[in-house]
Amino acid sequence: MRKLQMVDLKSQYEKIKETVDSSIQEILENTTYINGPHVHAFQKNLETYLGVKHVIPCANGTDALQIAMMGLDLKPGDEVITADFTFAATVEVVGLLQLTPVLVDVEMDTMNISIEALKKAITPKTKAIVPVHLFGRAANMDAIMQIAKEHNLYVIEDNAQAIGANYTHADGSKTKAGVIGHVAATSFFPSKNLGCYGDGGAIFTNDDALAHRIRGIVNHGMYERYHHDVIGVNSRLDSIQAAVLDAKLPFLDTYSAARRLAAFNYNKAFENNPNLGTPAFDMEGDDHVFHQYVMRVTNGQRDALLAHLQAAGIPCAIYYPIPLHSQKAYADTRYKEEDFPVTNQLVKEVIALPMHTELDEEQITFITSTINTFLNA
What's the rounded Cα separation, in Å, for the pair 149 and 122? Predict the structure, then answer.
């Protein structure tokens, strides 16, 4: 059996090695390291793939979120609602811009933002909603966009974990996650479904005026060299990372299909285990791209299972062990524990198993049999 890894980037690279290596060599020879042809080519190709008017590359996913909020000209004290159960970057940028984060609970079945909790959190100071498409599954965007319309709010999609996923609307039509709200941010961190070989990110929008503003923000506020029209930052995707991403982009749907197949095989192996709550999804659908395979251990043995898997040489992780409302940096007297029943349960039960495009049947059988044996299923 091949060595188990949480993410197998080397095997993925070997399949696109010739394209990646030749593109990088071309950049080295032409010295077009910043804003070169490879960046513009990737931008256009990603716009076509997503069906969005504007992709603005930047340095990383956290910058992408911050720049999206800067582009909307949110003011200090404006309230931004987001999910309590997610990585800190989502709320980190809210604090950096002196906005007011408002954390709400999530849904048990999807682990995405709770629509009912979202509705209750809206106040006259609310200006934006940041739905996180957690672990590769799009949040309930029809409901979120309707709420935003009713209250005149911006929607900033955190699409760091769900690039390539489709969202199926109530009428049966499909739209790529990340192009439904007013603006979206994504990350190209190496372990992402579309990852580069360093840091990278991008902002998506169909709003021409917003795209123009954001293009200035990412480049020191300049549209013309040494003319600073808006307050900006230095956040650009370099050419080498763009070349890697452009080599991977044609395979993104294939990568997503491989992840869904791995998730299907995990679920099938665990279907008779009463101690596990596995992620529900339609194998024939494309609404979940499984950036992570996260299940719940419901019998109180999560930590014991974690230790057992680690001892057996099976990589695993807990996403996420501490709710944002319990983090020292984001603690607030406004938050009551009874407002977060689902999040508080999830942090005690969730465990993530290896998930990547190169997982094979032998590896999955070993992982699942080890878990089922430990849990006596």
Answer: 13
Question: Residue 312 region, left (φ>0) first, then alpha (ψ -120 to 50), else beta?
Answer: alpha
Whether 137 and 167 have beta carbons less than 8 Å apart is answered as no
pLDDT tens digit string along 286-312?
Answer: 899 999 999 999 999 999 999 999 999
**Among 141, 212, 209, which residue's Cα sits nearest to residue 181?**
141
Least trusted range by pLDDT, from 28-32, 281-285, 323-327, 347-351: 281-285
Other CB atoms within 10 Å distance of the CB of residue 230: 17
Q: Could you report how far apart the first and last alpha carbons of the chain are, in Å?
A: 24
Distance CA 222, CA 232 (A): 8
Q: Which residues pair with 313 in a beta bridge?
A: none
Residue 118 makes CB contacts below 8 A (sequence gap 6+) with: 81, 104, 129, 144, 147
Report which DSSP code applies to 177: T
308's tokens:
């057992």
Peptide bond into 320 cis (omega under 30): yes
The pLDDT confidence band at residue 143, using thresholds 50, 70 and 90, is very high
| pLDDT greater than 90 at residue 283 | no
Mind listing the pLDDT tens digit for each residue in 76-106? 999 999 999 999 999 999 999 999 999 999 9
Q: What is the pTM of this model?
A: 0.96
Domains and CATH numbers, the chain: 11-250 (3.40.640.10), 251-374 (3.90.1150.10)
Q: Which residue has the tokens 């749907």?
A: 253
Number of H helices, E strands in the chain: 13, 14
Calculate the CA 374 to chain-centre distance. Answer: 31
Which residue, 356, 369, 343, 328, is CA-closest to 117? Answer: 343
- Alpha-carbon gap, residue 174 to 208, rounded angstroms: 22
101: closest CA among 127, 64, 70? Answer: 127
Please report, for residues 49, 71, 87, 155, 259, the alpha-carbon distance to residue 253 in angstroms, rounded to integers and kept in the order given.
Answer: 10, 30, 25, 26, 10
